[in-house]
Amino acid sequence: MFFKSFLIKYGEIGIKGKNRYLFEDALVKQIRHALKHVEGEFTVRKEQGRIFAESQGDFDFEEAVEALQRVFGIVGICPVLECDDLPVEELAVTAIDYMNEVYPEGEYTFKVNARRTRKSYPMDSMELNSFLGEKILDAFPKTSVDVHNPQILLNVEIRERIYIYSKIIPGPGGMPVGTNGKCMLLLSGGIDSPVAGYMIAKRGVKLDAVYFHAPPYTSERAKQKVIDLARIVSRYSGPINLHVVNFTDIQLAIYEKCPHEELTIIMRRYMMRIAEHFAVATKSAGLITGESIGQVASQTIQSLAATNEVCTLPVFRPLIAFDKQDIVDIALKIGTYDTSIQPYEDCCTIFVAKHPVTKPNRNIIRRDEEKLALVIEELLQKAIETTETIWIEEER
Ligand code: ATP
Ligand code: MG
After folding, report:
1. Residue ranges of the THUMP domain (predicted)?
2. How many CA atoms lie within 13 A of 248 on its CB side?
3. Is 268 part of any known ligand binding site?
């Protein structure tokens, strides 16, 4: 195989000093983790502000690139030809081999961009640019040099070793997971919440998740769907601890004791309270939901305010200003959409009122919640105690 290594490019703006080391170390860790699932053996190392992922033998190129494209923090993936120190003539032969292999059509404009950090190398960058440029022109007569807008920018870096690359495959951007703490995602089987989790993980936040299950009103297949979604999200975010809360008794109590037009709001408030309980217990610093203004009755500004007020942790709603189609586009891109649209009921659809309040008055909601006073503490306790926690990790 021609390429054995990747040079990983990452965004550096705004990360300086100590933060930069944390960023790089987290990125190395995430790259190792992602490549663990790829056919082949890799070593990942940090060297002078660069990260290299190097294969020990044959590997599946496409699969490796795909895995790296899921690692937040990476902005570019460059398949790189790495060689030991070479005298200039041999370097030219190697550069020609490279061009021949990567651009066999032999017809393009190009520019050589040499960088010499090892000052003992016999030619400096400018000399290398013209020397290698001429050699390539001689080898491929249909090419020409364009210094302003070349089709191919051939990078040649003279460090301890020598690195040749030109292709930059885009990475996902964002920040490496683990650089910005952990949050608890309220994960339903819908389209929105997996996308919300993905977006927050992209900012470097590790995820745990909580799902409210209401058997027998919601089926085992609905639960399996949420597990499947968590697994897809974990391909980007890394492993997720998914808490499956048995929510049936609480829902039934609300249904029995509270006004039906307030069911959804009161139910959402208990979801938030329980999610916060698990967040605090497992050291998550915030909650994440897939809510978006006005999408449904429980997502008007007044409804959001009513569900928000029961939490003390910050609640992150990355989709708050997104149109449904924009959310669907991301769901398609990250691969959650097909699973999300499987037709298994979620617990909210069974207990929805015909005319839910759209502008809940918080004083009234608080007052109506009082109707649960005699039973709720015990029900909450039981829901928490019977919660099943599932470790979700990407499968090979
Ligand atoms: P989604 O597509 O994420 O299900 P939705 O548009 O169906 O969202 P709602 O049902 O109002 O909206 O839920 C709003 C948010 O509340 C969800 O995005 C999710 O974060 C959370 N949520 C709703 N139902 C559940 C559940 N059964 N378990 C965990 N979280 C839930
Ligand atoms: Mg939903």
Report:
1. 62-169
2. 8
3. yes
